[in-house]
Amino acid sequence: MSKNVKILAKKLISSLLTLAVLSSSVVISGNKNATESAEAATTKADTITISAAGDCTFGSDYTSPSSVNFYSVYNKQNNAYFFKKVRKVFKKDDMSIVNFEGVLTKRTTRADKKYAFKGNPSYYKILKKGNIEAVAFANNHCRDYGTGSYDDTTKIFRKQKIRYSSYSRVGTYKTKGRIIGMVSVCGLEGYSYSAALVKAGIKKLKKKNADIIIVSMHAGVEYQTTPESTQINLAHYAVEQGADLVLGHHPHILQGIEKYKGVFICYSLGNFCFGGNTNPREKDTMIFRKTFRFKKNGKVKKDNKARIVPCSLSGKSYINNYQPVILKGSEKVRVIKKINSYSKKYGVRFNKKGKFKLRK
């Protein structure tokens, strides 16, 4: 190799080394925030708070008065209106979940039943504006306009990244390095069938390394304040299979809260943002909040970090304006007393601030 070639080769190597150093420096300094974000994503949070509410129906039956039904209010308002008065609660948690009762579709062939609910596909924005990240979608209204309407709705959930669980399909939501797993079943379709789905669903979620497992069950008798056998048996079975929280709905009113083997069971969360009735006879509802803490081995601690937020499904007492509100003062106390009376047989009570206390 000639002398000139050697000199050129040395200069080239030197230049490449300089570029490598400069490039390395740019990557380190320029991606500091990205590196920190990546580290945060892999670090598991010590606590996760979940908020849960009951039946949300974005639509009304065709027989409801057109002047006061859900559609009439929607046409005068915007997507942010419906959860505006409770959004601050959902905004402060790590995941909010509701029962989605009805379908989002443009189909017109109605199922042959007493009540059927559908909303425009664009109504998914109501969930987004309300800070609702997840929905349970296994109930007696998820095919109100045929099987196609069920498919339409789940496609919207997937496209809009709204996490959902429905029968054999489990859902997962990742936040703060933790995986929240969800199973939803409709106990009205039989205990054995629902129990099999719960068992299989929890097994799937364990394989997905879910840190928290929530089971939602649509079961019970409408307007009955006491849970019936299917609710109790299904909820207990879910806990025995590994559920960390059980959420119930369908009765349209509140029922008691049990703590079974260290796990909270809300037998019925009642209606919430409910377009199915223009003036429900029972407007009391609540948001159930559970803060999960974890052991060193990653498993959920069985503690008492839970509270209720008493609400009304309407801001008006004489009609449903489809805008849930947080109750205060004497009305807040009244609803807490009601829930305590329903939960007394389980040894569960909540203090005047809505915090869980073991009954003495």
CATH fold field value: Purple Acid Phosphatase, chain A, domain 2
**Mean of all residue-level pLDDT scores:** 91
Q: How much helicity do the residues have?
A: 25-40%
**Any low-confidence stretches, pLDDT <50, length ≥5?**
1-9, 11-40
Class by helix and strand content? alpha/beta
- The assigned CATH architecture is 4-Layer Sandwich
Report, as a whole number of angstroms, the end-to-end distance. 93 Å
What portion of residues belong to β-strands?
25-35%
Q: Compute the gyration radius: what is it?
A: 25 Å
H/E element sequence: HHEHHEEEHEHEEEHEHEEEEEEEHEE
Count all strands and give the number: 18
- Domains (count): 1
CATH class: Alpha Beta
What does this molecule look like?
- This protein is of the alpha/beta class and 360 residues long.
- The protein has one domain (46-358): Purple Acid Phosphatase, chain A, domain 2 (4-Layer Sandwich).
- The protein is built from nine helices and 18 strands.
- A hairpin with a 2-residue loop joins β11 (257-260) and β12.
- α7 (191-207) runs parallel beside α8 (229-241).
- The longest helix is centred in the N-terminal third of the chain and has 28 residues, at 3-30.
- It is globular.
- Mean pLDDT is 91; it is low at 1-9 and 11-40.
